């Protein structure tokens, strides 16, 4: 799956495969086949396109997707131009790494593409266009899942991710349900000599509800707004408690001040709230001051009236504690 890292915000799909699924579509720019007598493409175009031989060499997910299609044998025919590929642009954030792809066996036009940062994209036209897919059962916790693998057998399908999560569909991906798993997965690490230890028991990766409550309460309050609904994050951004782990400018996540990967504990003293965009750009960097965090922030600012509208949409009411005003 590592070859997908080369694709960042796009995937490359053989147009011959797409043409066989769609009889009418507007062609985008293609890399000419080797046998064609055409002018050489500019270097930038060459750099942005991966040859078929290169892709098949390491791109197991794409190979699996072709094998699921009844047209797979045609796509791999020896007489097909091997350098003819087309870029498909994807609605994903910069830095997202794509990890797996699969199509429904009985409906090769319907497929899913997975990646980091809870990325799930869905296509219903054979990969010509992709749209974000929301699965509520995978969004009800304070985790930022990395969806690693997807597979289908008939209309049944499975998505697995990390931290441990398993999603199941019985209707070809129209609906997905969460299959409960042990919070301790992947389980104990066994070492030669018979000893074992569970790193999850020793160092919890995520903040518990008590730590998150303290983390929220110690954040700076927004003047004139309900502190149970609004706070100012460590970068100086206003965030809304009802907008957790989403991608908007008022969304937020709980962040380790000292990154977990560098020994930081998942305790209230090591917790801060951060606008989602800031937290994901910060990644596991350590020792970043507020000024630098601010440069990661959204440029959009909201007026008081706009915050009222958003609060009404999220909570169904607007609370102004200082004036004892409650609308809704």
UniProtKB/TrEMBL annotation:
Q: Which Gene3D superfamilies match?
A: 1.10.30.50, YVTN repeat-like/Quinoprotein amine dehydrogenase
Q: Per the database record, which ranges form the Photosynthesis system II assembly factor Ycf48/Hcf136-like domain? A: 82-188
In terms of Pfam families, this protein maps to:
PSII_BNR
Q: Can you tell which superkingdom this protein's organism belongs to? A: Eukaryota
Q: Which CDD domains match?
A: HNHc
Checking InterPro entries in the record gives: HNH_nuc, PSII_CF48-like_dom, WD40/YVTN_repeat-like_dom_sf
What keywords are assigned to this protein? Photosynthesis, Photosystem II
SUPFAM superfamilies linked to this entry = Oligoxyloglucan reducing end-specific cellobiohydrolase
Can you quote a single GO CC term?
photosystem II
Give GO BP annotations, semicolon-separated. photosynthesis
Q: State the protein's name.
A: Photosystem II stability/assembly factor, chloroplastic
């Amino acid at each position: 799956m590592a070859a997908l890292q080369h694709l960042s915000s796009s995937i490359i799909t053989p147009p011959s495969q797409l043409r066989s699924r769609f009889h009418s579509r507007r062609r985008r720019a293609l890399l000419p086949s080797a046998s064609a007598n055409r002018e050489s493409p500019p270097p930038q175009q060459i750099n942005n396109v991966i040859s078929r031989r290169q892709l098949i060499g390491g791109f197991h997910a794409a190979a699996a997707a072709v094998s699921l299609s009844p047209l797979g044998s045609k796509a791999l025919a020896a007489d097909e131009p091997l350098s003819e590929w087309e870029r498909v642009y994807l609605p994903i954030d910069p830095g997202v790494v794509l990890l797996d792809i699969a199509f429904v066996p009985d409906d090769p036009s319907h497929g899913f593409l997975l990646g980091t940062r809870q990325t799930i994209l869905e296509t219903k036209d054979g990969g010509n266009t992709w749209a974000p897919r929301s699965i509520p059962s995978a969004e009800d916790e304070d985790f930022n899942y990395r969806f690693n693998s997807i597979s289908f057998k008939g209309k049944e399908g499975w998505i697995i991710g990390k931290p441990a999560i398993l999603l199941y569909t019985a209707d070809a991906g129209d609906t997905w349900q969460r299959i409960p798993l042990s919070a301790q997965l992947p389980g104990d690490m066994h070492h030669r000599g018979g000893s074992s230890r569970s790193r999850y028991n020793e160092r919890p990766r995520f903040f518990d509800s008590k730590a998150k409550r303290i983390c929220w309460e110690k954040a700076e309050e927004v003047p004139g707004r309900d502190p149970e609904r609004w706070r100012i994050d460590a970068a100086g951004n206003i965030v809304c408690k009802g907008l957790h782990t989403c991608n908007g400018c008022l969304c937020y996540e709980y962040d380790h001040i000292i990154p977990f990967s560098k020994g930081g504990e998942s305790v209230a003293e090591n917790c801060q709230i951060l606008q989602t965009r800031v937290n994901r750009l910060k990644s596991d960097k350590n020792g970043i001051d507020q000024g630098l965090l601010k440069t990661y922030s959204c440029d959009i600012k909201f007026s008081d009236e706009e915050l009222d509208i958003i609060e009404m949409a999220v909570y169904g009411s607007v609370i102004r504690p200082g004036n004892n005003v409650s609308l809704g």
